Amino acid sequence: MILRYSRPAMTAIWSAETRYAIWFEIEAHATDALADLGVVPKAAAAALWRWWATEPAIDVAAIDAIEAVTKHDVIAFLTWVAEQVGEEARFMHQGMTSSDVLDTCLSVQLTRAADLLLDDLDQLLAVLERRAREHKLTPTIGRSHGIHAEPVTFGLKLAFAHAEFQRAKSRLIAARADIATCAISGAVGTFANIDPRVEAHVAAKLGLAVEPVSTQVIPRDRHAMFFATLGVIAGSVERLATEIRHLQRTEVLEAEEYFSPGQKGSSAMPHKRNPVLTENLTGLARMVRGYVTPALENVALWHERDISHSSVERYIGPDACVTLDFALARLTGVVDKLLVYPARMRRNMDRMGGLIHSQRVLLALTQAGVSREDSYRLVQRNAMKVWESDGALSLLELLQADAEVTAALTPEQIAVNFDLEYHFKHVDTVFDRVFGAS
Fold first, then answer.
1. Rounded Cα–Cα distance for residues 409 and 50 (Å)
2. 16-36 vs 42-52: helix axis angle to the nearest 10?
3. pLDDT of the residue at 4
4. Is residue 217 a contact partner of residue 196, using CB atoms and an 8 Å limit?
5. Contact 182, 104 (CB under 8 A)
6. Among 361, 355, 346, residue whose Cα is nearest residue 394
């Protein structure tokens, strides 16, 4: 985790203190269930919770010192807890294996992380809807291949992003449900030394589902899907960030990141206002996506388990969640304060001499009885003159002066196809689909 790209609530989920606290809850809940089944004394479970009620500080350094000798993190933790609790602690971990603690803990951490990410998405969605409605009918040019195509509205661009992040939310809800499983099944997952009712009890206490069949670990296809979902969300973050970066280019300048008082864009050039936040988001998205492949490769473990996945997850668990959390919050801030320039959008649309209306004229000619091939030829030969003049010529005027065109359409019939508002007649339909009926 890089503190520069971290937020406290998400970072706290991945702290050593939080991890050990979850481990203790798993062990204590399991001991409760074992006591109810008569496997261990009820006093043992009571002793654990009695110590925990004192709100003890978890001594990470002391546990690390024990691990330096044992070379085993769970044993080091159990040893330290036993030193604090006393004799009754010997009944902890009865019939359990380390993966029962480690995997169930990771499930808890990932579900908590997912909850924060879902909240991030809700905040982003709210801002996108507000700005989309603000610019619902703000005309701008749609581009394909980076080239002027036909008019859209800036609100439609933001509605597109809203729909995309709604899908992201749905996927993350599903991924959260998929990862929220508990395995307390003992060595190789057979429950030979621990009753399945212990697993059910721990799962209920932690808000998890019971893993239907574990080996010695929770199946890693669940984790792969979770991190793949984060990777797709990061892709959506980059898509919107890239759109804003393009719109901020000097030659375009239809929108730009908010530039605060006192902000500096360049150490050398005082005039610079660079899209640094969206460039940063592009880099962060690359990092989150980079964790997907290792998660996929973790699926293929040897037999009932190995630990080739362990080192990977110690990296990607905190890093992917912390980075995406930061990125979503940053993107929300960018959209919230985004500077939008409708007049510049209109100037950019108008600079190519009406070429953006070429399809309407093409369709009008076909409706007037001209073949599609001839219609395309007539419009294109005039459009290319406008293109080559860099917009100095007018497509409307050239078409109205073209005898072959006016043989099929009157000048008035040609002109009606240059109405900008025509392109926005179904904006309400799209908005109702995205945001619900007004």
1. 90
2. 150
3. 93
4. no
5. yes
6. 355
Q: Note if 266 is an active site residue.
A: yes
Identified catalytic residue from 72, 170, 266, 371: 266
Q: Are 148 and 356 in contact (CB under 8 A)?
A: yes
Q: Report the pLDDT value the prediction gives residue 78, as an integer from 0 to 100.
A: 97
Q: In angstroms, rounded to a whole number, what is the distance separating the alpha carbons of residues 365 and 372?
A: 8
* This model's pTM is above 0.85: yes
Q: State which residues of the chain have pLDDT below 70.
A: 438
Report the alpha-carbon distance of residue 138 to residue 334 in Å, rounded.
19
Annotated catalytic residue within 145, 267, 271, 303: 145
Q: How far apart are CA 5 and CA 382, in angstroms?
A: 53
Residue with the two structure tokens 């996506």: 289
Q: What pLDDT, on a 0 to 100 scale, did the predictor assign at position 321?
A: 98
CA distance 115 to 109: 10
Please answer whether residues 151 and 359 qualify as being in contact, where contact means their C-beta atoms are separated by less than 8 angstroms.
no
**pLDDT, tens digit (0-9, with 9 covering 90-100), for 158-210:** 999 999 999 999 999 999 999 999 999 999 999 999 999 999 999 999 999 99
pLDDT at 119: 98
Q: Is residue 185 packed enough to be buried (19+ CB in 10 Å), middle (13-18) or exposed (0-12)?
A: buried
Q: How far apart are CA 108 and CA 13, in angstroms?
A: 9
Q: Which residue has 């304060």 as its token pair?
A: 337
Terminal CA-CA length for the chain: 43
Query: Residues of 129-155 as b/e, b for ≥16 C-beta within 10 angstroms?
Result: bebbeebbebbbbebeeeebebbbbbb
Report the candidate in 145, 131, 143 with the shortest Cα–Cα distance to residue 349.
143
Q: Is 93 a catalytic residue?
A: no
- Contact between 257 and 216 under an 8 Å Cβ cutoff? The reply is no
What's the pLDDT tens digit per position in 51-62?
A: 999 999 999 999
